[in-house]
Amino acid sequence: MIEAKDLGLKSIGKVYHNPGYDDLFAQETANDEGRVAANGTMMVDTGKFTGRSPKDKYFVHQSPSSKYIAWGKINQQIPAEIFDELFDEVTEYLSGKDLYVTDGFCGANEKTRKSVRFVTEFAWQSHFVKNMFIRPEAGDLASFQPQFTVYNASNLKNEKWEYHGLNSEVFVIFNIEKNVAIIGGTWYGGEMKKGIFTMMNYWLPLENILSMHCSANVGKAGDVCLFFGLSGTGKTTLSTDASRKLIGDDEHGWDEDGIFNFEGGCYAKCIGLRPANEPEIYNAIKRHALLENVVADEEGVIDFDDASKTENTRVSYPIEHIENHEPTLKASHPKNIIFLTCDAFGVLPPVSKLTKEQAMYYFLSGYTAKVAGTERGVTEPQATFSACFGEAFLPLHPTVYAKLLGEKMEKHGVNAYLVNTGWAGGGYGVGERMSIKATRACVNAILDGSIKNADFEETRWFRLNIPKSLPGVDDTLLNPRNAWADKEKFDATANKLAGMFIENFKKYIQSGDDFDFTKAGPQA
Ligand code: ATP
Ligand code: MN
Question: When comparing pLDDT for 508 and 236, which is higher?
Answer without folding.
Answer: 236
